[in-house]
Amino acid sequence: MNALTLLIIRHAEKPDGDATGPGLTHKGKDDSKSLVISGWERAGAWTALFGSGLGGADYPTPQAIYAADPDTTKDSSDPSRRPYETVLDLAARIGLARPNTTFAKGQEAALVDALLPLSGTVLVAWEHKAIISGILPRLPVSNAGQLPTHWSHKRFDVVLRFDRAAGGTGFVFNELHPCLMPGDSAKPLKSDPVDE
After folding, report:
1. What is the pLDDT of residues 170-196, one digit of tens each?
2. Count of Cβ atoms closer than 10 Å to residue 7 Cβ
3. How far from chain centre, in Å, is Cα 151?
């Protein structure tokens, strides 16, 4: 297999009661399936981190970006624009027309099958519960005991990094905490209480 670095992030902040404000499209129209203002700020922070070279070796610039299809799902949930919106500006910054949205939430197995033969650096933006239940169990990871088993609904600030050496078949996992915005945590996901 080719050398591959996978960077997996959760979509940025979403509507969560009155405290966060409404979801807004990139044109400023109310949309409950879009990011809130702080989510758009985080999307900009991810763009700066991954798209400018400022992140150094821990946060390399991706050559490809995948996001869950914003218009459909393949499970019983409603579609969400948030993963797509989170990486839309990053895609533009690195010269991509748009993120790859071939796969919808509910198609995590097909997504992983498409990712494994790739090389270089690939970033994936997805819904946190589907990352835990649908993506992580399908990745061959040598230190799988370190993988998070839950992702708090309050955490939008984590990068799950997977590195596969050239000729290797498995990945080495690292959880990264860039602390880009006020209130971001440097604690691992495993230390957070499990959501009810």
Report:
1. 999 999 999 999 999 999 999 999 886
2. 24
3. 12
Q: Could you tell me which of 76, 74, 58 has the C-alpha nearest to residue 178?
A: 58
In degrees to the nearest 10, what's the CA dihedral of 125, 160, 128, 46? -40
- Residue 45 three-state SS: helix
- State the DSSP code for 194: P
The HSE-up count of residue 21 (CA atoms within 13 Å, CB side) is 14
- Residue 160, both tokens: 């799950």
Structure tokens at 68: 């869950």
Write out the two tokens for 111. Answer: 């997504």
Residue pair 99/84 in contact (Cβ under 8 Å)? The answer is yes
DSSP secondary structure letter of residue 27: T
Q: Counting every residue, how long is the chain?
A: 196
Report whether 46 contacts 86 (CB < 8 A).
yes
Q: What is the pLDDT of residues 45-96, one digit of tens each?
A: 999 999 998 889 999 999 999 999 999 888 878 889 999 999 999 999 999 9
Concatenating the DSSP letter of every residue in 63-121 gives SEEEE--SS-BSSSSPP-SHHHHHHHHHHHHTT-SS-B--S-BT-HHHHHHHHTT--EE
CA-CA distance, 70 to 74, in Å (whole number)? 12
Q: Which of 44, 17, 54, 53 is nearest to 32 (CA)?
A: 17
